[in-house]
Amino acid sequence: MSKLFDCHHALKSETEIVLNWFKINEMKSNSEKCHLIVAENEHRPAYISNSYIYLDKENELLESEICVKLLGLWIDNKMVFEEHIKKILTKGNQKLHALMRVAKYMTTEKLRLIMKSFIESQFKYCPLVWMFYSKKIHNKINKLHERALRVVYKNDDDLTFEELLVKDNSFSVHDRNLQKLAELMYKVKNGLCPLPVQNIFTLNDSNVALRNKENGENWIFPKVRTENRGIESLRYRGPFTWNLLPDDIKSAETLNIFHEKISKWKPEGCSCKRCNPFYQGLGYL
Questions:
Q1: Nearest CA among 256, 121, 255, 134 for reference residue 176
Q2: Is the model more confident about 241 or about 47?
Q3: Which of 126, 142, 170 is the last residue of a domain?
Q4: Do 145 and 187 lie in a common domain?
Q5: Spatial separation of the C-alpha atoms in residues 252 and 182, rounded to whole Å
Q6: Are 261 and 255 a contacting pair, CB within 8 Å?
Q7: How many domains does the chain have?
Q8: Residue 47 pLDDT level (bands cut at 50, 70, 90)
Q9: What is the pLDDT of residues 55-73, one digit of tens each?
Q10: Range of 209's domain?
Q11: Which residues have CB under 8 Å from 186's CB, separation 6+?
Q12: Which of 23-27, 96-100, 273-277 has the lowest mean pLDDT?
């Protein structure tokens, strides 16, 4: 509890320093571009989340919010990013309806180009931040993708979603996200990421990796217990996804070669809740 209050007090103090710097340099803060959000968990009392700070000497109040937008990404106070994905789905459905209205006047090639540019592209921005969504959201994304493919190929029920993906020579949104995650791990392994990203993961030394190949290979897995305690996180899923890759992709000499190979890789063996079926009363198996 005391740490939370200390953090809140430090935030207020740092804000005063920044605002004082503005004043000294004859600048004024824009309250419309200032936001405060406090991440929630089961150990944080409700009144801590209802925090506030003052932006100036006139006591302009900045209250904590449930969801804020930062660089095109909607961040919620529970850090599940469902609000962000819901907004993507809304935009995707609106564009799909527009595509459906003109589908009969266009060729398959043009429909496919529009679908890739205006619907699939919605899910390509910062996927590693929000990719650990719920099974319910996963089904909604796949449903939108499937409907879009049916419009492009003018198909009703002849083909399944998986068969449509094969026909389109493409992957589901989640499979693409796993490809992106694998590419991140390649960059981390070869020192191509900024230091804060590198520090998320821990590499094994070569001797330990050889003795412990079945349990992490190049990576040390974090100690996790449940989904909410780290299993569904970048730190855990990154090494796990890397271990799914065949050796010829892992050993790519350059990032360009790795990118070319990974874009054709079909993720298999993933045990996350989006890949595993859910059984009532039993959970994810």
A1: 121
A2: 241
A3: 170
A4: no
A5: 12
A6: no
A7: 3
A8: very low
A9: 665 567 778 888 999 899 9
A10: 176-276
A11: 192, 242, 250, 252, 255, 258, 262
A12: 273-277
Residues 16, 57: one domain?
yes
Q: Which amino acid is at 152?
A: V
215 found inside a domain: yes
Q: 219: which DSSP letter?
A: B
Asked if residue 200 is part of any domain, the answer here is yes
Give yes or no for a contact between 8 and 51, defined as CB atoms under 8 angstroms apart: yes
How many C-beta atoms surround the C-beta of residue 230 within 10 A?
Answer: 16
Q: Is residue 264 part of a domain?
A: yes
Confidence tier at 13 by pLDDT (50, 70, 90): confident
Structure tokens at 179: 């490809």
CA-closest candidate to residue 18, choices 69, 65, 53? 53
Q: What is the β-pairing status of strands 278-279 and 283-284?
A: antiparallel
Categorize the per-residue pLDDT at 197 as very low, low, confident or very high, splitting at 50, 70 and 90: very high
264 shares its domain with 190: yes
Taking the whole predicted model, whether its pTM rises above 0.90 is answered as: no
Residues facing residue 219 across a β-bridge: 203
Helix or strand or coil: residue 64? strand
Give me the residue label for tokens 């040390």: 220
